[in-house]
Amino acid sequence: MKKIVTVILLSVLAFSLTGCEGFNQPSNGNSTQQRDEYYVKYTISSSFYYFGSITYADVNGTKHDRTGDYNRTSLKWEVIVGPVKKGFNSHVSYSRGSANIVKIEVSKNNGPFVLKASGDDSANYIIDF
Question: In the chain, what's the furthest Cα-to-Cα distance?
Answer without folding.
Answer: 91
